[in-house]
Amino acid sequence: MALLRQEVDPGEVGLDAKALDRLDQHFARYVDEGRLPGYLVALARGGRVAHLVTHGHRDIAAGLPVEADTLWRIYSMTKPVTSVAALLLVEEGELSLDDPVERHLPAFAEPRVYVSGSGADTVTRPASGPIRIRHLMTHTAGLTFAFYHTHPVDALYRDARLESAVLPGSDLAETVDVYASLPLQFEPGTEWNYSVASNVLGRVIEVVSGRSLDEFFAERIFGPLGMTDAGFCVNDEQAGRLAELYGGTETGGIEPIPGLPLHGRPRFLSGSGGLAASAHDIHRFMELLRRRGELDGTRLLAPGTVDLMTSNQLPGGADLRSFGSRPAHDEPGNDGVGFGLGVSVVTDPTRTKAPSVLGAYGWSGVATTTFWVDPRHDLTVQFMTQVRPKTSHTIFQDLKRLVHEAVQDA
What we know:
Blueprint (H helix, E strand, L loop, with lengths): L16 H16 L5 E8 L2 E12 L4 E2 L5 E3 L4 H14 L20 E5 L6 E4 L6 H6 L13 H8 L12 H10 L15 H13 L3 H13 L10 H4 L6 E3 L5 E3 L19 E3 H12 L3 E2 L2 E2 L3 H7 L27 E3 L4 E3 L14 E5 L3 E6 L4 E6 L2 E2 L6 H12 L4
Parallel strand pairs: 7-17
Antiparallel strand pairs: 1-2, 1-16, 2-3, 4-9, 5-6, 7-8, 10-11, 12-13, 13-14, 14-15, 15-16
């Protein structure tokens, strides 16, 4: 276990202490009012942690506080890790961004695109081209999630028992084969729809590398980066540090809910949302990206590869709002935000819902966890808690505003 610690006074790296106090007080109120169980927030500049605060509980009923070594289910923050894993194989020549997925997963040969109808009356046509690896990384493959209720293909995923993105009782290979049997919402590479694509990418990594996804992550990313707690399950030593998961209530409060099962290696290794990690782990991962592929003398990716990953790859340079008819991940909002190879990217700060800067990139998870890297200010930020909200909230927008106010050389 490695522990994240504050390394420098905020003022030494251009962060305003009074503004950071406002940030702390703001989120402490969320806890005091019963809207969050507890949280951890950390800011670093130039790789040095300048603000690290914990408040509230990781387990309210047990009276256990949030601590620097608390473990968090990071859900969709798994996706950037999966993208880095795939890019390792790209650099080694084992995989290409332009490879048809069917080259590695034959079940995806001859994809079909939705035309009309629903259920047994669904009409499809052959796709004009293959799904490519880059389409998986950018969520432009035409795949979807079952929990959306905006398109007939979403319902077909529910009919296939994919409500939680995994076929009950199945592993990654078996579940991905079910995805492949379903029609696409649109032609690959033409639109953006946040989806199960990272699970497909995870299976590609397994096939190409000859390793299970958890083994590949551990050997090629977590070990080299010193991400000592990150993984798809927790051991006996880690179990007491894992935060309880809460859900939002109709009255604005929170209550415990079942979380991602982490005690024992899961049968389904989700490249989309299966990881747990500590703040130290997230800091190390952000540092890899901030330093453009190298950390403490260990280079995982070339600088140009990280630059590609963290630049907008959407068709025609569009932002997420351009696909407003699709259910899109709303953090920090879709206006002025594009998507790279596994991370969101700010393309127009004048249009974002919360203060930001051109080129800032990151991602978040459904349990209200988030991270971003701000290259202009050499700044990284993470916020960790464990609440799956019932309705939309402004936590991420508030966080961006309060961090923006703390940066003195903005």
